[in-house]
Amino acid sequence: MLIGTYDGALRDVLHRVWGFSDFRPLQREAMHAVLDGRDSVVVLPTGGGKSLCFQAPALVDSTRPSDPAAGSRPPTARRGFALVVSPLISLMKDQVDGLRVDGVDAAYLNSTQTSSERDEVLANLKADRCRLLYVSPERLVGEGSQAFRRLLRQCGVRFIAIDEAHCISQWGHDFRPEYRQLGLVREDFPEASLHAFTATATERVRHDIATELRLADPLVLVGSFDRPNLTYRVLRRGSLRKQIQTVLGRHEGESGIVYCGSRREVEDLAEWLRSEGHEALPYHAGLPDHVRASHQEAFLQERADIVVATVAFGMGIDRSNVRFVIHASAPRSPEHYQQEAGRAGRDGLPAECVLIYSGADFVRWRQMLEQNGEYTESARLLLRDMERYAAGTRCRHRALVEYFGEPWTRGECGACDWCLRELEAVSDATTVARKILSCVARVRQGFGLAHVADVLLGRASDRVVQCGHAELTTFGLLKQESPAAVRGYIEQLVAGGWLARAGEPYPILRLTGAGAALLKGEGTCELFRELQPPKGRVRQRGDGGVSFDGDPGLFNALREVRAGLARQRGVPPYVIFHDTTLKQMAERRPTTLDDLHDIYGVGAKKAADFGDAFLDAIRTWGRPE
């Protein structure tokens, strides 16, 4: 691959259409793979610019100028279009709306359109007036799709981009069977290269994607999984509402998402938040379609600041200025957590991700997966890995990065509870661990976490007394500790592999081989306890986030201008401009359209369409009325 071949054309498109001055990490290589016709698997973090990796090449002529044999494109030749497979109607609509605002000829085909709207899209395809077409996997490979693929073949598919490609893999966190059939499109489009894009994929998932899509010698590009602008915290669930209030106190007037484990919890928390004066809306699969769509639109249009949701609120959410994501219970895998937490801070500005969990979350997940027939070996391992993250005793950034196979060489991150010293290492951790392991052994490995904690705390409950466990030598051994701390220690021993849960629906604790060895005096372990959480604004790592030296009042005035333009266009505000762009306007205060086009994120079409409104706001800001 000749890396320099298309650089000029790509840089021109990036600057002219999107207002970007250069490539972001790995974008250049990914775009060249598309234009060279080489299959690829591209893994870039949320907010890393993966969509541009297929959008920009769709606007560049793939005839290589340095190849004399290629010559120039005949004036009658079709330019063709990029075929983009997207899993959600809302996601493809938002992307197409954004591209159209940028001046790009893009379209989608889905079940929400009228027959006349679909006919118009097909007419534009046949007339070579479309550069990107978004479709669902069902439309491309579902029942009765052969005629549709024949039509696409006649219109000239240049390449195929598969977004959210982790849905292909049975080892991925959002496996969708219809995605696995996408490998069949090779037979209908043998000359079109295939490109898989996702934000979260382990090495096993990446291999599965390449195999199922039948990719030929694919270029595999994996960006950093670290999100330095995010601050990660993990709390063991106590008074959930107080814990949520503490987080919200650090984000007054800012937007966020609260993920819950059940529909009932979604409704309860949303109602409570509204009673506390927050613009909070519920979102879950039990709500009517029109209500879900209305609540999602209100959040994206910035008419509501908080959405309380189940995981049903997922891939279609592209609001860039989400400042916090709270998980009120643990998700089922690190992949789910990385993607859901990754909805915070997509604009590169500081944001916070807080996981509030208890050991019961993992029990509930096991029961639910078993009931649905989904408790496979891969599901068990993913759940185990999530539990290890939650109860882990090291840097949160490092834990997530290394989980996805990326080495960590940076020392302390400065942006998680562990590295910010919000957790305290237990000085005599191994002794405490042996007391707990001894207690599990003395109750004959036949009781659950709550019972073992009661014995260690010296609580003479009816059951403890009836079982004779108040007479054990381990009774009250940890009575100086808080109940939350003892439960936390036990969960850490489970996550660390010294204890295991067994049995359903009420699992008991058992010693593992490692636990038995530790009890005998072999080896050591680490434990920690939570300190008082911070109440101030979010701290972030020195190399994360984007500083702001402008006038906050002007920034808010520009946000008002953006909101008005978004309402006129019927699109979310971030489609007009991201917060990072508005902040740079507030800092640099451009006075002409040429000045404005030098601002990050201001393309030529947006400068022409919206420039005067923002320049007027900048010129009149602070002027006496």
Question: Which features would summarize this protein structure in a list?
Answer:
six-stranded parallel β-sheet, 13% strand, 42% helix, 625 residues, seven-stranded parallel β-sheet, Arc Repressor Mutant, subunit A, alpha/beta, Rossmann fold, globular
How would you sum up this structure in a few lines?
With 625 residues, the chain is of the alpha/beta class. The strands form four sheets. It has a seven-stranded parallel β-sheet with strand order 3-4-2-5-6-1-7, sandwiched between helices. A six-stranded parallel β-sheet has the order 8-13-12-9-11-10, sandwiched between helices.
Q: Give the second-level CATH assignment, the architecture of the largest domain.
A: 3-Layer(aba) Sandwich
Number of strands: 17
Main beta sheet, described?
A: 7 strands, parallel
Total domain modules: 4
Give the strand order, joined by hyphens, for the main sheet. 3-4-2-5-6-1-7
Kindly provide the radius of gyration, computed on alpha-carbon positions and rounded to a whole number of angstroms.
Answer: 27 Å
The overall average pLDDT, rounded, is: 89
Count of discrete alpha- or pi-helical segments spanning 4 or more residues:
27
Under CATH, the homologous superfamily of the largest domain reads: P-loop containing nucleotide triphosphate hydrolases
CATH class of the largest domain: Alpha Beta
Percentage of residues in helical conformation: 40-55%
